[in-house]
């Protein structure tokens, strides 16, 4: 992980704990479905991990969730079975192939989205065999010497940590990090970046009144949704009726707001 990037506090915490050797397996929880400001862009958490935090230091990056399966934002030529993993839909088989990959490769990052769906909390007697097996698998991964020896990292993402299996959350080999709601400075930056017409005073005012909101919510307030095609057509027809039949009437009516 690069040491020169200016990172959010939680990301810097993850980086330092990884470099100190405290853990190779992390749980990110809390405000995980918000956007993260980076270099003038608003990125999802997964995009921030794959394109910023892990991009330069990892040779292979794998992202997996139960809905869309596995994808590979970055991989080396010697990662031979990536296509087999990408098309597999059975959770147990995917986890087995992912384990083989992190055992046999170096500098690999594995990101598990919606980790609570892979290893859910709940009474053991009410869980399926597949869920119980997944919990044991993830718990066992935290003790694999190949992960640390190969400079690999595993990141589980779960909005509500209470929905993730306690056996994993309470594991001393797993580091738990909360992604917080945006602070005042982040809210101010979101406001000014979303609407460049805002003055510094207006951006500060928006930052104050939007305390408790996600960055994506602040952006949606300042950036109204695009007009429907029907509304645009009605607007154009109305303006055209006002302009008459001049040579440039249609062009003038078609101008955006």
Instruction: Identify the strand order in the major beta sheet.
Output: 5-4-6-7-1-8
Annotated CATH architecture of the largest domain: 3-Layer(aba) Sandwich
Q: Could you name the CATH homologous superfamily of the largest domain?
A: P-loop containing nucleotide triphosphate hydrolases
Radius of gyration: 23 Å
Instruction: Name the helix and strand elements from N-terminus to C-terminus, one letter apiece.
Output: HEEEHEEHHEHHHEHEHHHHH
Q: What is the helical fraction, as a range of percent? A: 40-55%
Strand content: 15-25%
Unreliable parts? none
Examine the coordinates and then state which fold CATH places here, giving the name of the CATH topology of the largest domain: Rossmann fold
Q: Whole-Å distance between the termini?
A: 45 Å
Total number of β-strand segments?
8
Major β-sheet profile: 6 strands, mixed
Number of helices: 13
- Oligomeric state of the chains? single chain
Number of domains: 3
For the residues shown, what is the average pLDDT? 88
Structural class: alpha/beta
For the record, the CATH class of the largest domain is Alpha Beta
Task: Give the overall form.
Answer: globular
Account of the 3D structure:
Helices cover 45% and strands 17% of the residues. It is an alpha/beta fold and 257 residues long. It folds into three domains: 9-179, Rossmann fold, CATH 3.40.50.300; 184-222, no CATH class; 231-257, no CATH class. Strands 5-4-6-7-1-8 form a six-stranded mixed β-sheet, sandwiched between helices. It has a two-stranded antiparallel ribbon with strand order 2-3. α4 (91-104) runs parallel beside α6 (129-141), α9 packs across α10 (200-209) and α9 (184-194) runs parallel beside α11. The protein is globular. 28% of the residues are buried. The model has no long low-confidence stretch (mean pLDDT 88).
């Amino acid at each position: 992980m690069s040491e020169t990037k200016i990172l959010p506090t939680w990301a810097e915490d993850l980086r330092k704990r990884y470099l100190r050797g405290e853990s190779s397996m992390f749980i990110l929880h809390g405000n995980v479905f918000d956007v993260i400001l980076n270099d003038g862009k608003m990125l999802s958490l997964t995009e921030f991990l794959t394109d910023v935090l892990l991009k330069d230091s990892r040779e292979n990056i794998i992202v997996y969730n139960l809905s869309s399966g596995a994808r590979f934002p970055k991989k080396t030529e010697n990662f031979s079975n990536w296509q087999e993993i990408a098309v597999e839909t059975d959770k147990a088989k995917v986890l087995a192939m992912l384990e083989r990959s992190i055992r046999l490769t170096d500098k690999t990052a594995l990101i598990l989205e919606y980790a609570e769906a892979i290893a859910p909390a709940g009474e053991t007697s009410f869980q399926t065999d597949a869920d119980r097996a997944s919990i044991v698998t993830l718990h066992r991964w935290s003790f694999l010497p190949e992960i640390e020896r190969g400079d690999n990292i595993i990141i589980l993402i779960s909005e509500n940590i209470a929905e993730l299996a306690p056996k994993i959350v309470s594991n001393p080999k797993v580091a738990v990090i909360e992604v917080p709601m945006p602070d005042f400075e982040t809210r101010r930056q979101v406001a000014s970046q979303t609407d460049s017409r805002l003055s510094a005073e207006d951006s500060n005012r928006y930052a104050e009144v939007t305390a408790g909101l996600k960055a994506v919510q602040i952006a949606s307030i300042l950036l109204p949704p695009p007009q429907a095609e029907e509304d645009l057509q009605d607007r154009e027809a109305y303006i055209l009726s006002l302009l008459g039949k001049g040579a440039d009437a249609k062009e003038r009516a078609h101008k955006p707001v």
